[in-house]
Task: inverse folding
């Protein structure tokens, strides 16, 4: 079996749904042993978040597709932590683990003795990562947090969607749970930093990751635009607040995103579209001027791009060194030659399921310690006897 860079690291995963499981799947992909604790008879909530559902070998309904996306590479152990016996079993496992990840409400595990204080008492080197909506402190610390509400509260929806006055104008969420996903990535980064510290000092620590904090960090240039200008950014549809042209443009058979990042690329775009003089016009010559005249710019470019098919336009722009890409549907993403070449679909099998289990490959590429795909997302309780019997 290939040894990933986190080979030898043992992770106790008390999380469910997406943010926590996304973090622990990243650790599993990198070679860590991840033991996922699930409720007997029910399991992770997302096992039922369908349709679509997988099909079991006997023809009955299997796990929801949602569960598969964030639980590759893990061992499933069914334990009821609400019972004294179950809590004791988890404490015993924690003694042999390097990391614990949980996403219960703040303070929710204290009554079971499974909070940071309880588990660090039995394993001082433990890296204990808590993922919550609002963190371990503050006036909202007691509140539950869900991706959608955090996208709203954290400002993301205020800059996503069509502008006021345009058809369909309203605040809009992103099409995937980006706050959960970013939270999982921040958590896995923090965990790996904690492991390095523990290796050097023998000290564990408590990592406090909040969805709300992550969403604020995700605002990136939109937040600093506000800090510098004093004006809150607004919804701009597919336009970019700091660059132009940087949006989808119409073709005869679809849409192509053109992403101009500097004045030279803009001039190359104009040359490719056979409107070379436009690249030198004062109202379009610099990025700041293009933003000031965005409406005119978009109309003139749209008139030109609409004369071409998507493939022909992208061929022209690629040759000119202008960044561009098609607006793909999800099925088209995995048909892209680049996706096929990079192996973006992972195919695995699970004994109780019909056919193969497909998930999206990790984007991490390492030359000496490649990502490990050694387990399909597990059946509920599949590894209970193995782990609790001391065979892990």
Result:
């Amino acid at each position: 079996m290939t040894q990933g860079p986190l080979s030898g690291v043992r992770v106790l995963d008390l999380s469910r749904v997406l943010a926590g499981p996304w973090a622990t799947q990243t650790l599993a992909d990198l070679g860590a042993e991840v033991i996922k604790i699930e409720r007997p008879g029910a399991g992770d909530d997302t096992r039922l978040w369908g349709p679509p559902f997988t099909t079991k070998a006997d023809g009955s309904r299997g796990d929801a597709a949602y569960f598969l996306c964030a639980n590759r590479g893990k061992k499933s152990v069914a334990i009821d932590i609400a019972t004294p016996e179950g809590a004791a079993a988890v404490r015993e496992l924690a003694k042999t683990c390097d990391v614990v990840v949980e996403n219960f409400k703040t303070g929710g595990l204290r009554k079971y003795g499974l909070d940071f204080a309880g588990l660090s008492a039995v394993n001082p080197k433990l890296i204990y990562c808590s993922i919550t909506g609002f963190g371990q402190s503050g006036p909202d610390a007691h509140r539950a947090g869900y991706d959608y509400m955090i996208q709203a509260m954290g400002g993301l929806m205020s800059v996503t969607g069509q502008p006021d006055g345009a058809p369909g104008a309203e605040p809009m969420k992103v099409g995937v749970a980006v706050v959960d996903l970013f939270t999982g990535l921040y958590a896995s980064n923090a965990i790996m930093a904690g492991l390095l510290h523990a290796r050097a000092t023998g000290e564990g620590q408590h990592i406090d990751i909040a969805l709300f904090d992550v969403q604020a960090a995700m605002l990136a240039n939109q937040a600093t635009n506000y800090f510098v200008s004093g004006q809150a950014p607004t919804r701009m549809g597919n336009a970019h607040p700091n660059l132009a042209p940087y949006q989808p443009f119409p073709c005869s058979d679809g849409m192509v995103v053109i992403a101009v990042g500097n004045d030279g690329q803009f001039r190359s775009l104009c040359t490719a579209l056979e409107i070379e003089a436009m690249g030198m016009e004062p109202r379009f010559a610099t990025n700041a001027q293009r933003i000031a005249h965005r409406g005119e710019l978009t109309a003139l470019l749209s008139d030109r791009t609409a004369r071409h098919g998507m493939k022909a336009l992208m061929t022209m722009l690629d040759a000119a060194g202008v960044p561009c890409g098609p607006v793909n549907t999800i099925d088209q993403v995995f048909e892209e030659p680049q996706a096929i070449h990079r192996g973006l679909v992972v195919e695995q099998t699970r004994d109780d399921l019909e056919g193969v289990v497909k998930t999206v490959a990790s984007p991490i590429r390492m030359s000496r310690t490649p990502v490990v795909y050694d387990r399909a997302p597990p059946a509920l309780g599949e590894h209970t006897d193995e782990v609790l019997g001391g065979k892990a």
Notes: The chain has a mean pLDDT of 96. The chain is about 35% helix and 15% strand.
